[in-house]
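Throughout our pipeline, every protein is held as a single compact record rather than as scattered files. Nothing more is needed to write down the fold, since each code stands for a local backbone conformation. For reference, a complete record is included directly beneath this paragraph.
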Amino acid sequence: MRLLCALGLFLALLHVTTCLRIGAFNLENFGPKKSKDVFVMKTIKEIVLRYDIILIQGLQDEGLQVYQSLMDLVNKNILESSPDHFSKIYSEPLPLGSSILKLMSHKERYLFLYRYQKVSVKGSFQYTDKGFERPPFVVKFSSKQTAVKEFVLISIHTKPGKAVKEIDALVDVVAAAKLKWTNNNIMVLGDFNAGSTHVKGDDWKKIRLFNNNDFHWLIANGVDTTVAKSSDTHDRIVVTTEMEKGVVAGSAAVFDFREEYSLKDQAKKVSDHFPVEVELKPQVEPEPKPEPEPEPEPEPEPEPEPEPEA
């Protein structure tokens, strides 16, 4: 059951609604083989249902059969008219002959699943400038239920050996999104490969996304986002200052599905990553003013007493 999260927002004066929960999950080689594992797919479904928007990375699905299997499972027994029904938007393969295609060794898609009666997609583009192994997919969302009405999500899955350069270049992707939509409510999320293995101490000085005060890292260094025994903070959520105003303070977290579902070693079959998540503040409206009470009718004036007879 989703917790109400409008505490501290003058409950006596405001309507309380639920927050919008956003997640990012690297499913690690999510292709035909994994999609045929009943246990894995059931677990993925349970995780997806936690969120109103979830970014899935690691989707290796040129023919879209894997994606369709997941959509069918997630929406099973959910009416299309239901607010719980999911829709999707995914990145397309780059066209043949694209200069960036020669630089890519991965053919992964980014996939956003979202509850379409709670949020809607207003636009998208793939950042095709050089510098990324898996070019970021950028989506503009709109919601009537959040304090931030329109916001941009930038998905990223960096190449481990180029993590420092790619994380740094995300500043340029943010700038491109701002230029396209004139919107400063921006969130960058996904597998940054920003653990100590790939981003070492002095490397942080080279990363504009880390050193620019306009960006706030909601999943901090030292938080374990991996299923493996080693502790690494690969997966991140970073927001602009404007976007941070619409985030529920303290809501950014790692969802440890291994512990939540008591999976132990089985968790590795699902992924070597845990999802990271955050919540957006709900739209709050002042309670309607009570109808004014009708003014009391004036009391009738007393009739004059009759004069005594002479």
About this structure: The longest strand covers residues 20-30. The chain is about 20% helix and 25% strand. The CA atoms of residues 205 and 267 lie 35 Å apart.
